[in-house]
Amino acid sequence: MSVMKLVLLIIVIGVNIAFTQENTIKENTQSLGGSALKLPHIQVIPIKDTKSERDYELYIKLPNSYSENTNVAYPVLYFTDAAWHLEILSASTEYMLEDVILVGISWQKDINKDLKDEVGVHVSRFRDYSIQKSNKPEIQTKYQMGQADNHLGFIRNDVMKYVDTTYRTDPNSRTYFGYSLGGEFGAYILLTQPDTFNNYILGSPSIKNEVPYLSELNAKLNAAGSMKNNSLNANVFVSYGTLEKEMAAPIEKFVELLKSRRDRGLSLQRVIIEGDHQTAFPMTAVRSVAWLSSIMSHIANSTTELSFFELPQINKAFVNPAPEAGKDSIPVGRLGVDGGNKAMILELAQNIANGTFPYYDSFLIYHKDKLLFESYYSRGRINLPHPQASATKAYTCLALGRAIQLGYLSMDDLDKPLVSFLKDLDPSTFVEGAQKITLAKALTMRSGIRIGEEDRKAMENDSIRLIGQGQVQTWLEYSAPITEASQTFKYQGDPDLVMQVLDAVVPGSAKDFIKNELLDKLEITNYEWQTAPSGIPEAGWRTSMTSRDMVKWGMLAMNKGKWKGEQLIPEAYIDQAISRIVLTGDDDVFGGGKDVSRQGYGYYWWSADLKVGDTTYFSSSAQGGGGQYIILIEELDLMVVVTAHDNDNRTLQLIAEHVLPAFMQ
To answer: What is the pTM of this model?
Structure first.
């Protein structure tokens, strides 16, 4: 069903539902007589603001499955302006998000009758949702504006308390929906008490004159430093209509204000919807509920075009100690039955889910040829590729190994000058010592190339020279002389040199070779591998892989280069790649801690000793900035795959403390 058809259907449903009401509530309603709102499956609950003694109502709709699934805790969607929004949110969730409790918060019921007759039944919204007092005395006297803080207290202390004690709710999955002035109220909540909700839907927020004040609130929030992990942890959906000319600029400023925070826990989606303030509303409801549905599952909508950091964070972790078999050639088993201490791993998963170990997106464990544990958190999705950063280097290493297996290179070639494989170069302009760079040296970050900052800028300003093998030509012209002293470990762009060789020796292009001879062989189809400025595949970063496909790369290494019985990469090459050829030292171990030592490097695979009590285990790992890992512990026949978005992670230490003990019995 198309979105437009769904919108039309929802509007029709809304109209039909409206006929069941004894009174239809509209924005220009002058008075409302008769009995309370009556709709099928809707409970109308009187509730009092215990601080102000004002009377309100809650319009509550439970999922159809609520009475049957007595062990399920449900997410809650709270919304203000309840009488206006109930029909369309009810219809939208019915089609796209069935398992959610709807809680609409009414306007004040016992408002001054004269004011209600003059303005309408909705008059209290001007007081309750506005964040500042009016600078016009007559307006302020009449409407008592700027009491958003009091209304927020009512929601937190009375509404949520009632809902959570009366119904089976998931406290980690609360959403706020507000439109227009309700959107302004939501922006206020987000920047004052962001932990009130996990997800915020702010449709056409009426913040035309409020951005300076919101900026002040943002500064106070930063100064307070009271947020979990000092980050605004929330998924935020902000929208406005194409014809809302006066609204667009301030809303965009608000969006930029949120973006400038650069919080790892903040996911922001800005949507511009066709229409004006009135006509944009139905699609805002539909689009935001569709967005919300993506937060409730570890399986993403396959049509999503969001970047990784735009992905909303799933509210409830997906933890599976018995992974399902897929069509990906990864054998599966059951944690605790086929190996591992189930209780210990589930405790670790709970600590990741509750933020004790923050910013993890997935955590998978493969043991004795079976995937025994699979979990997704935050921005992790089972069917979406995750940015790999420098884990890409390990894939480049394996691509070169495939070329050796097919005879385009030999193991002996690893010790030959790298430039001997590149026929488009002019050696006459090379710096002294260029011939000292072998493939093996480049694979271990010991090319010895050293380019000063000024020369690097000059080189990058002449980007045409960097196309094709011109990249290597230029590097070897700008570098200082290559010497024995310079050929020490330095984490830099050496993988680009290896990719240049791969592109030169294989038939066709390196891009086609990697796809046909590795990705297709491993049945990896859902990935991204970007092209470098040189025109060949990136070698050191800018790929994306699903977590399960990362398991496949790890299986290839664990099985000494074999995949489904076929030797894709020489065993001798794998042995060198994942060994500790270079000892890099313990001054700065990525993901390390007190039980991680002797950091080393092979062919773009890192290594370290992991200590558990008096026992030490050697580990090899592909590593990517932000926290991507494929960790191999050969002695335990164990692989751990991790994705995250935190450069300050302590993943190797976490493995030593919480995973290895579960597999040592």
So the answer is: 0.88
